[in-house]
Design goal:
Helices cover about 60% and strands about 0% of the residues. By secondary structure, the protein is an all-alpha fold. It folds into two domains: about 50 residues, no CATH class; about 110 residues, Helicase, Ruva Protein, domain 3, CATH 1.10.8.270. The radius of gyration is 30 Å and the shape is extended.
Amino acid sequence: VAAVEPVPERRSLLAAALPFTQALLAQVGRTLARAQAALAWPEGTPAVSPPPPPPPPCAPLSDADLRSYLGPGGRLLRPQDLRLHVFHGGVEPGLRKVVWRYLLNVFPAGLTGQERLSHLRLKAAEYSSLKVALAARAAPAELAQVAAAVRKDVVRTDRAHPYFGGPEEGHPHLAALQALLTTFALGHPRLSYCQGMSDVAAPLLAVLDDEAQAFLCFC
């Protein structure tokens, strides 16, 4: 650029831009100097030791392990430890029905075992009422549209699994999955139903084997 003689208009533009360019370069230099100073260790300061490696995977959560996290009356005393155990080791298949309800925050904190059973019964009754009320309140066109969108996924979700296998007509588990997802969509009109929700709800329903509890966990 310096080797080319600029025309008068370009010369005036370059002259006007020069102070701004110099100020910008000076600011960049100051910023780099601050960054270097911030990243430089003072002399004599020991280097920070690297973080410890993550704990190795542990055995899947067993019934004895679960009981160790519970206190008197069956209250869950160490929810964070329970979650970490499941994160690192998983859960024995027979315990998923119980543990998933903890992990998905179905229960308020501090409930005893008996209070958890009462809570489930209460929520099951609320779900039954909600399902009927939402279906009755929705406009026929909206209900048909949501039901059709849900049905399109329900009939092809995990059909190779024994829980969902068999003829579509009159299949109780497919009907439960359809009702669960339709109720959720009607109760959340801004979100409604999105493709793939059935892939989340299906394993919940298959493990819990209860439509109301699967709805609670899905929410």
